[in-house]
Amino acid sequence: MSTPPPPTPRALASGPEGPGALRPLLDTVLGALDTGRRARGGPLPAGGPEAVAARLRDALGEILPEHGDPQALRTLVHALAEGAADPADPLCAAHLHCPPLAVAAAADLAATVLNPSLDSWDQAPAASELEALVTRELAHRAGLADAVVTTGGTESNHLALLLARESHGGIRLVHGANAHHSLPRAAWLLGLPEPVVVPAPSGTLDLAALHRALTDVAGPRGSLLVAATAGTTDAGLIDPLPEIAGLCAAHGARLHIDAAHGGGLLFSDRHRAKLTGLEAAHTVTLDLHKLGWQPIAAGLLAVRHPRDLDVLHQHADYLNADDDTASGLPDLLGRSLRTTRRADILKTAVTLKTLGRTGLGALVDHVCARASEFADLVHDHPGFELYDRPVISTVLFRPADATDDAVAAVRRRLLTEGRAVLGRARLDDRLWLKTTLLNPDTRPDDLAALLKLVEGTTHG
Ligand SMILES: Cc1ncc(COP(=O)(O)O)c(C=O)c1O
């Protein structure tokens, strides 16, 4: 049998020729991912920003050559993989940056090939139904009624403030000092008054201070929006949700819970109870590109009542003409602030169905257990100080007796040498190294190696 000719550069990904065109290209991509990873040889490229940028510029060459280069796919995928910070490497453990599941990445390819656009039914007949069903199911798991798809925690928080403003005609945000920066930023974007910042001296929102704030800043009922956090960015801590919900109810304040980080605990029998109180919120931010092993983007905003989303309604005759809607074509335009919108829900739907709740829960339990083991290692090592036991899978630690400058220098040296990606967080007015363990393949040996590496870098 003769081998088929290579696909022409202008072959389409879908249609009858699509699979035949894609298959060899996928081989090229998978090969280049592998050669790039080997060339990197560690969790991130060595040499720091200038060296990485120079290598990338060399690989890229002329950006828009007069005549095309058939090797571009291999060259650029290799270059990107060689220069990646790879969350699948156990020593890449800084941020809420997860290694995506293969099955989710494969599903995402299908979304890319089919290219449904979720702003009108005639561009996404099945995808729109899939999105409606899966978002509702995820919202129900959080104790709410419905959810919309977003690009991540930032967009979800922004949307939560917008819904609150629209349903109450002007609101003021009250958030903890531990809240994600996207919350005050959303208040700024929406032209809301300066938020009230409630102290969080031990990393979670202080209840007595919240009570004082709600008493002192009292306005018309519902004009205050309290934002609590279930899984802080820096330490993975969970605000006391039931107590905060009780205070909001007593003061007539609206409650938003940013569970972008901690929302994945909902899948776990062992850890779900940490999210008790979530169901009392008016809106909840969820984000499965953190503790959910999804390729970016996989955000959601869940709402208490389906009608809460009505304020997003828009009319554009080319997408949702009244007579089309009246004759039964679903109106999708009110399910986002965006217009053209990819079918990000497919990878999530495939993941939920492939692993099931217990499969996802097992991944959650596993990374939480690894974090606990890492905390034990740190605690038992005389050369390190542990901030606290992990609540989710974030462990903060620092070399004992080091200055903040020395802690920062350790992190930068590991980054520059391409040996480990650790984060940084300031708590108790001291700088800590941060590990967020999201890789379910990390082994106990990897944790020991990580600590040894930091020890060697501190004293080296
Ligand atoms: C608690 C929390 N909320 C919101 C966000 C923002 O999410 P995204 O980066 O997906 O916009 C983050 C990001 O780390 C986060 O930790």
UniProtKB/TrEMBL annotation:
It comes from the Bacteria. Residues 1-20 are annotated as: Disordered. It comes from Streptomyces similanensis. Pfam families: Pyridoxal_deC (PF00282). Keywords: Aminotransferase, Decarboxylase, Lyase, Pyridoxal phosphate, Transferase. This is Aminotransferase class V-fold PLP-dependent enzyme. Belongs to the group II decarboxylase family. GO terms for molecular function: transaminase activity. Its cofactor is pyridoxal 5'-phosphate. The keyword Cell cycle does not apply.
